[in-house]
Amino acid sequence: MEYPKEQIEDLKRYCKKLSAVTEGGVTYLCLEGLRLPSGCQPAECDALLCPEPKDGYSSRLYFSSQIQGPYTRNWNVSNARIGERNWFAFSWRVELANPTLTQLLVAHLNGFAKEK
Amino acid sequence: MSIETISEAEIDIREMAESGREVPDAQVYRVPIDGQVVRVDTAHPTGEILLSKVDKRPCAFELIAEFVHCDNDVIEPEEIVDLRQRGLKGFITAHKEIVTIFINGDDHPYKIERGVHMVAQILARVGQTPDGYVLLEEKGGPPMPIPPNQPIEICGCETFFSQPQSGGSSS
């Protein structure tokens, strides 16, 4: 899947390096050194943004490790193997009509800033 | 035969003011701001330009002109200052009590009291609530969501964005 260039450029502000990984017909955006909201430990990590429906979610954000945030989250994906790496994700539903990639990423990151 | 105006290379306005001399035309004026001497290459800078010489912005700071024999004068950001005016010895800055923040773009400034505010108070400036919107702050990096219960220290010039709330735990 192709995304508008301006959306890709905007997304690059959040990480050190952005690339794409396609596996099983799904395109993931790999965000190396993604900055996380304040209160998260570690403060940054690698992440995979899946802007397409996956595992019953309209989109997902995978992390290279489980992140300690201000609120307890249900980490229902552990060591998922994508692009020859292991990934972790917590259960977080995002319902946005036609979001940009950055809006989608922020909506997932808000999972660390929102109680429920 | 042509008449040329000879201008000084650099002039220290404090020296001129304290000695009671008129400030001559110069290529560069040495101007004290908060005790730090900065170089200004025009006799008529704006208040905002002078503030920027000490890395400050009008959204948080006020510029005040100091004179040898008369009261201080507050300079507005867009006001043009005459560095050659008699008695002007420099400037000081003061942190404003009512500062400006930006929500959803630099072209959307909002006045707010300096100090600690809650997310709901910031969102209220744009008619939004934490139930419906996430507040993001751009602070040394890209805009990041702020927890609704986290107090925010407002010093002036902060940049915020809002985005519709959309996420929720499915467990």
What's the topology here?
The complex is a heterodimer of chains A (116) and B (171).
Chain A (H helix, E strand, L loop, with lengths): L4 H8 L4 E7 L2 E10 L8 E7 L9 E4 L13 E6 L2 E5 L3 E2 L6 H9 L7
Antiparallel strand pairs in A: 1-2, 2-3, 3-4, 5-6
Chain B lengths: L7 E5 H7 L6 E8 L2 E5 L6 H6 L8 E7 L5 E3 L12 E8 L2 E6 L5 E5 L1 E3 L1 H6 L8 E6 L5 E2 L6 E3 L4 E6 L2 E2 L3
Parallel strand pairs in B: 1-2, 7-13
Antiparallel strand pairs in B: 2-3, 4-5, 4-6, 7-8, 9-12, 10-11, 10-13
Please provide a written account of the structure.
The complex is a heterodimer of chains A (116) and B (171). Chain A has 116 residues and is α+β, with helices and mostly antiparallel strands. Chain A is 15% helix and 35% strand. Chain A contains two helices and seven strands. Chain A has helices at 5-12, 101-109, and strands spanning 17-23, 26-35, 44-50, 60-63, 77-82, 85-89, 93-94. A four-stranded antiparallel beta sheet of chain A has the order 1-2-3-4, with helices on one face. A two-stranded antiparallel ribbon of chain A has the order 5-6. The longest helix of chain A is centred in the C-terminal third of the chain and has 9 residues, at 101-109. Chain A is globular, with a radius of gyration of 13 Å. Chain B is mostly beta strands and 171 residues long. Chain B has three helices and 14 strands. Chain B has helices spanning 13-19, 47-52, 119-124; strands at residues 8-12, 26-33, 36-40, 61-67, 73-75, 88-95, 98-103, 109-113, 115-117, 133-138, 144-145, 152-154, 159-164, 167-168. The longest helix of chain B has 7 residues, at 13-19. The termini of chain B are far apart. In chain B, 30% of the residues are buried. The chains are: A alpha+beta (116), B mainly beta (171). Chains A and B meet through strand 7 and helix 2 of A and strand 11 and strand 14 of B.
